[in-house]
Every structure is written in structure tokens, then in C-alpha cells.
Write a structure and sequence with these properties.
The structure is a single chain. The chain is α+β, with helices and mostly antiparallel strands. The protein is built from five helices and 14 strands. The longest helix has 16 residues.
């Protein structure tokens, strides 16, 4: 399925490609497939491709580009794609401790939604989420698929300090803070793993199109995994699939 795309100049050496402003899997697959096909066409003047919910930013390695010519090239690649290629992705299984010492907003959410904290945890860890893109902070994963029952508005007054690894809900999204930072999301747990490690060739293990599933661990298990992570000997459980 080909979408009706719009191409816009973005500075003097970038082009922003927009899809319909809807967040769904079909658009994500189309963006990632187009991104893959641009790379395979080996357009040498392109230095970087950055995707988001419904856009793709194409950055060139020249000071100034001929927008009309480059847009023609990109549109030709998109329209001549044919069947979308299968892209190799991974399902990552992420341990989360929902203990009260970490889930500092669980009680308030439980009262607001008139359900048990155990129910919130069960719903949160039952979903297989899709990674749409990375942003906000290095290693911050924008995930789609949160159970609508768990949708919770962001806090009116953000916290000045959210702990590294905090697992939180903001509006219709859930995510993990990869480092300590201010934040206004509702915190329900913490993950002991590293989401951004500059000592690795790929600092963030996940990429757009991957899947994430959380699984609940005890406080004791959290401390054990944390020790292994700090010693750089912990391996995340994952499996390959083709999106």
C-alpha cells in the first residue's frame, strides 16, 4: 500500500517526508521499508535517515541541495518499491520491578482507576509493545500499544528528578527513562538494565520496528540483575522476527 506523502525542505540540506498524521503499524512499516530502500539504492549524498511516528528526515552531506531533484529521486524510489521487503526485527524481554519502592505512582493510579495495583501491573506487562522511534533522551524508546485502561495524564507539575530506569506512563504511552532526568510521567516501576551504553558499538540495543515486552521481577531479582548489569555480564532475552 502506497501512502500519499508530502516532501518539505528542512533547512538547506535536509528533506522531511511526512505520512498521514496517524500512529499505526502500517505507517511504521512503510516508513521503515522506505528507509531501507533508500539505503539499498546507495544515494551517496545521503548521510543520515531519522524516522519518527509518521515522518522520515533525510539528511544530505552537502551544504545545499537541489530540493526538486532530490525529491524526484526519493519519490521514484518510494513509488518503484513494489512489495515491501520484510525487515528483521527483535522482540526484547525487559525485566521490571513494580515494587512499591519504585512504583511511586501506583497507589494513586490504583485509586484513580478503581482497580488494584496488581491489575495495573498485569495489564502493563501483558502487552507486546512496538518501538516507533527513539528520542527525547538517548535510548528513550517511544512505545505504542499501551492498554487503554492504563492511559493516565502526565502530571501537571513534572518532577525535577526521575530515577534512571524508571518505567512510567504518560497519556497513552509507556516508556523507560534511560538516565536520571526531569519528567512528568507516572512512575510504576524500574528496570535494572542499561538502555543506552556508550561503550557498545550500538549504544541502544533496540531500534524502530522492534518489540518490547515487560516481565515482572521481585526486588531481590532486581538487585541480582542490577549486579550482573554493572559487571556487564547480563544478557537480555530476545528473539528475531520479521516485520
Amino acid at each position: 500500500m502506497a501512502f500519499s506523502l508530502t516532501y518539505k525542505p528542512f533547512g538547506e540540506r535536509s528533506i522531511l517526508i511526512n505520512w498521514p498524521k496517524v500512529i499505526n503499524i502500517s505507517i511504521l512499516k512503510d516508513i521503515l521499508s522506505f528507509k531501507e530502500n533508500i539505503s539499498k539504492n546507495n544515494v551517496k549524498s545521503i548521510v543520515e535517515l531519522r524516522s519518527a511516528y509518521n515522518s522520515l528526515l533525510v539528511i544530505y552531506n552537502v551544504n545545499k541541495i537541489d530540493f526538486n531533484e532530490e525529491i524526484k529521486t526519493l519519490d521514484k524510489i518510494y513509488l518503484s518499491t513494489g512489495n515491501l521487503p520484510k525487515i528483521e526485527c527483535r522482540l526484547w524481554k525487559i525485566p521490571v520491578c513494580y515494587d512499591a519502592c519504585f512504583g511511586i505512582d501506583l497507589e494513586d493510579m490504583s485509586e484513580e482507576k478503581n482497580c488494584t495495583q496488581a491489575s495495573i501491573i498485569k495489564r502493563h506487562s501483558a502487552v507486546v509493545y512496538t518501538v516507533y522511534f527513539l528520542g527525547f533522551l538517548p535510548g528513550f524508546l517511544y512505545l505504542g500499544g499501551l492498554d487503554a485502561k492504563l492511559f493516565t495524564p502526565r502530571k501537571a507539575t513534572p518532577r525535577l528528578k526521575v530515577e534512571k530506569g524508571a518505567v512510567a506512563i504518560g497519556g497513552g504511552q509507556t516508556g523507560i527513562y534511560p538516565q536520571e532526568s526531569p519528567g512528568g510521567w507516572n512512575i510504576i516501576g524500574n528496570s535494572p538494565i542499561e538502555f543506552f551504553d556508550t561503550s557498545k558499538n550500538e549504544p541502544c540495543f533496540a531500534q524502530a520496528g522492534d518489540k518490547i515486552q515487560f516481565y515482572s521481577i521481585s526486588l531481590k531479582e532486581y538487585k541480582q540483575i542490577k549486579t550482573l548489569v554493572e559487571a556487564k555480564v547480563f544478557s537480555l532475552e530476545s528473539e528475531v522476527f520479521y516485520g
